Amino acid sequence: MTMNSTGRPTAPASGDLDRSLTDTVSGSRGLLQAEGLLFEIGSIDKSGVDLPEPRNRPDRLGGVRRASALGLPGLSEPEMMRHYVRLSQRNYAIDLGLFPLGSCTMKHNPRLNERMARLPGFADIHPLQPQSTVQGALELMSELADWLMKLTNMPAVAMSPKAGAHGELCGMLAIRAALLARGEPQRRRVLVPASAHGTNPATAVQCGFIVDEIQAAPDGRVDLADLAAKLVESSDVAGIMLTNPNTCGLFERDIVRIAEMIHAAGGYFYCDGANFNAIVGRVRPGDLGVDAMHINLHKTFSTPHGGGGPGSGPTVLSAALAPFAPVPFLVRTEDGLRLVEHEGEGEAAESFGRMCAFHGQMGMFTRALSYILSHGADGLRQVAEDAVLNANYIQASLRGVMSPAFEGYCMHEALFSDAFLKETGVETIDIAKGLIDEGYHPMTTYFPLVVHGAMLVEPTETESKAELDRFISALASVARRALQKDPSLKSAPHMAPVRRLDETRAARSPRLKWTPEASALKAAE
Ligand SMILES: *Cc1c(COP(=O)(O)O)cnc(C)c1O
Fold first, then answer.
1. Helices marked H in 236-317 — which ranges?
2. Cα angle vertex 28, ends 24, 32, to 5°?
3. Checking CA distances to 371, which of 264, 297, 444, 487 falls within 20 to 30 Å?
4. Is residue 50 exposed (0-12), middle (13-18) or buried (19+ Cβ within 10 Å)?
């Protein structure tokens, strides 16, 4: 196995055909520099700063002053700068190229939004400032809330949830509060389709519900017969969590009927709104019978999401659930806007409580409103139409070489199964790794679980036809190599700085701890 200069493997153990072409002494490839971890390249006797020992200062630490050196590795300033710049060059980013991940909606983040979010009046305020001094920011939150309620035709919105999953928690806690207020604590069963995003069942369990899985029909949508069977005995049904368009990229045609069935059974309808970008401006979830739905501002309304945040998941609520909304929320008074902060009193008498310290992600609110206002109502509708058009263009263009998972048009993402790979020896993961050599981040793989070897591609509306064509030709060429049983695909990527990794072992037994060598520590003292 080839190691880089810091002793970590750069190549797969075997089956690598062109190793001699891509291996280098330094581990660098072209102008992409190999880079170790800080702990590997730093040393504990080095520092980027040179401060004089404080003179004549009485020790104010009492008995807790460290007796020995801390022993953290240090780097000089230029070494440190290079370390982070080199790491940043390893990143694939939406600003570098098309990001085909499905169920994530990686669309361009307009710079106008960034500019607005940096305005000092929004960026430099503090959540503990007196409310009279931040009326402009509260007005912005109120205007965004108004747009979200109009676009969904829902009467209330909780702005504080900080991601889609947090919004799910908000909606399900509101449902639980409503059931308790009805005196029906025994309603604990939540129906979740087999294609659901993992956060849905996780949220239900987190709220003390029991998950009951509904099967998918052969067309990728909810199996109505299975749903009806689960509702025959309905006294314990709390509700359903349904994504629309669903994670197969398909519109749930029977959604109104599903809402009626759930309501007739005494349950509530939670809609996972992560895919709202496919229908915004065209369909209002409130018209479909939805009781609660989160909106991922970082998907539908183009605010950035990377490295786990910062997201924002405002959650719209029906009239039945609105009284249970979390604090804080905004009310308009004669003196302007005011945040209602305390549950159990006044307007928040029935609120289920608080989800986070303050009111939510101000920077994301600013970016989302900027996006909404720059598009306008007609522009938002076109966002949805173009996203669906682009996904269908990809599906139709690749139909000849890959196997679409379902018949007919898709919504905002194109889903392929691994049926076309049968008897080639190539698997979904090899296609994903082959795409890396072609300069693209892989699409979502092996999700949704209802499709074998799933490959889920979401181009978003922000890609031009030229860019889509480039991506299609890259993916088609990888697929054709698979059909020709090209063995080199099994060890792709070949060009990336890091080769095929043992991802299972990385996840199961990660090396998370660094221990300085005792001898080095001694020397530093
Ligand atoms: C992204 C996504 C979520 C979770 O949203 P986060 O903002 O990542 O917490 C939930 N459901 C679906 C279908 C999603 O695509």
1. 255-264, 297-300
2. 145
3. 444
4. exposed
Calpha distance 413→278 (Å, rounded): 9
The pLDDT mean for the chain works out to 92
pTM higher than the cut 0.85: yes
Query: What phi and psi, each to the nearest 5 degrees, are found at residue 73?
Result: -70, 140
CB atoms within 10 A of CB 392: 18
- Tokens 């310290």, located at residue: 357
Nearest-atom number in ligand 1 for the CA of 247 is 13
Q: Could you give the 3-state DSSP secondary structure of residue 348? A: helix
pLDDT tens figures, 232-276: 999 999 999 999 999 999 999 999 999 999 999 999 999 999 999
With both helix axes pointing from N to C terminus, report the angle between 465-483 and 362-398 in degrees, rounded to the nearest 10. 50
* Residue 3 near residue 10 (C-beta atoms within 8 A): yes
Q: Find the 199 Cα to ligand 1 centroid distance in Å.
A: 7
243 lines ligand 1 (CB under 6 A): yes
Residues ≥6 apart with Cβ < 8 Å to 223:
214, 215, 216, 217
Helix orientation angle between 135-152 and 362-398, rounded to the nearest 10 degrees: 30
Nearest Cα to Cα of residue 402 among 459, 476, 472, 456: 476
